[in-house]
Amino acid sequence: MTDTQNSLSRLDAVLAEVIDLRDTTALLNWDERVYMPQGGVAAHGDMLATVRRLAHEKFTSSEVGRLIEDATTELNGESDPDARTRLAVAAHDYDKATRVPADFVARHARASSAGHQAWREARERSDFGIFAPHFARLIELKQEYVEFFRPLAHPYDALLDDFEPGALTSDVLRTFDLLRPRQVALIKAIPGAPPIDTYFLEGHYEEKDILAFALRAVSAFGFDWTRGRQDKSAHPFATSMGSDDVRITTRYHPDHPFEMLFSMLHETGHALYEQGISPSWRRTLVRSGASLGVHESQSRLWENIIGRSRPFWEHFFPALQQQFPSHLSDVTLDAFYRGINKVEPSLIRVEADEVTYNLHVMLRVEMEIGLLNGSIAVNEAADFWNSKMTDYLGVTPAAASNGILQDMHWSVGLMGYFATYTIGNLISVQIWETFRAAEPAADDQCRRGDFSRLRSWLKQEIHQHGRRYTPQQLVQRVTATDIDPAPYLGYLERKYRDIYGLS
User: Fold this and answer.
1) Which of 47, 327, 352, 332 minimizes the C-alpha distance to 183?
2) What element of type H or E holds 230?
3) Which of 30, 32, 196, 269 could form a disulfide with 298 if both were Cys (CB 3.0 to 4.6 A apart)?
4) For residue 29, how many other CB atoms are within 10 A of its CB?
């Protein structure tokens, strides 16, 4: 064994234990959101704080820094691309992590655990006041976190970079400025078209029957049940403890029964990404998605570009009619397709149609920036939310549960996350158009319920690489273009002008 292999092997061994500790926190977080009794909040908070602190201390140790330096020197001239990737990702992450004290990590873990449980109670009671003090504490911690990364072009860059490496606040706001006028123009054109009737989506659907159909679709997409599972939670999410243990959750709302189906398709997109990462990255820092924007591109592709497409329902609609004859026996495929793609400003982000969805994201990013810089106070946050919902979408929440409390992200300290949904929307269309150019029979495969070619192509081009490439490098490699709003805007305008018969 060479000296290079000695240094890199020792580094790999230490980092493998860091990954194990991080996967333990993911498992604790999953349990907290799925099965933990309400009385377990304090115990879970202590466990999470301890494990996260240990992971942080182990990763930021002087030993890891020394091994990175030694391996960098010794790897000079070596041609092993996997070794170079592991080392480059480790060096990048180490530089970021060593700026953050272990004490901060533990304090943030406790605040996140307590905040999430307070949010669950606040959402159930529709009382923002229950969550507000926890929210204030989490914002204070984010303001403290930003200081670890000065100087910055914009304070929000520090939060954004955690989820979308290399992205800048100025780039995100510029993208929003490009999207907003054309999406608003499309929204304003739709009320002049004949209305779409969705009565058949609103009746009572048995939860177990919707779930059974959703599981059928998830299985058709290729989710590996020997390496994954599905459960219920207050807010749908996907998580993994490695590519061989990937978990998705959903929820059922009797007033919006098909939310369960589409949220499961969404989370399955995340899960397929995780299950598709190469085994060679097991227990390394490379074993995750290139970014959350790239991750969201997968969930939005499977949920919307596939799951809300006409070819998908040409295959699945007869089975859905058979499962729900009293609701759908007299409904045509065209009526159903138009119904699930109806454009209507709504209160809830996860229920939003494709045309209005990005406006929900813009609101959240604007709020996060304001909360971070102090221009929005926590005690004003709910009113600010309601005002912006009225301005952006023409709807005003009557209750906090349908307003500021609807997403769980802030409750667990995830700020800087929401912009990745819009970035994912953009990338999803670029990826889909590239696949269709390479696979002219893509729509026919979808009509047959055969997603094997798409799944294998995504695994080959995107999933297997993990973090080998930055988001921009990956998009360039796959599509030969930068991340670009134009294809997404073209997709929206073509699809919805056709649905609504707009000129």
Assistant:
1) 352
2) strand 228-232
3) 269
4) 20
Specify the DSSP class assigned to residue 214: H
pLDDT in tens, 323-377: 999 999 999 999 999 999 999 999 999 889 999 999 999 999 999 999 999 999 9
Active site residues: 267
Provide the strand spans (E) within 235-309.
238-240, 246-250
Q: How far is residue 467's CA from residue 73's CA, in Å, rounded to a whole number?
A: 22
What is the C-alpha to C-alpha distance for residues 272 and 224, in angstroms, rounded to an integer? Answer: 8
- Rounded to 10 deg, the angle between the 419-438 and 452-461 helix axes is 110
For the chain, the straight-line distance linking the first and the last C-alpha, in angstroms and rounded, comes to 68
Calpha distance 250→259 (Å, rounded): 9
> Taking a C-beta distance cutoff of 8 angstroms, is the pair 487, 430 a contact?
yes
Tell me the C-alpha distance between 312 and 445, whole Å. 9
Q: Are the beta carbons of 371 and 138 closer than 8 angstroms? A: no
Residues 6+ apart with CB under 8 A from 107: 49, 141
Buried b (16+ CB within 10 A) or exposed e, 217-252: bbebbbbeeebbebeebbbbbbbbbbbebbbbbbbb
Q: How many CB atoms lie within 10 A of CB 413?
A: 21
CB 373 within 8 A of CB 343: no
pLDDT digits (tens, 9 = 90+) for 152-205: 999 999 999 999 999 999 999 999 999 999 999 999 999 989 999 999 998 899
DSSP codes joined into one string, 295-351: HHHHHHIIIIIITTSHHHHHHHHHHHHHH-HHHHTT--HHHHHHHHT-----S-GGG
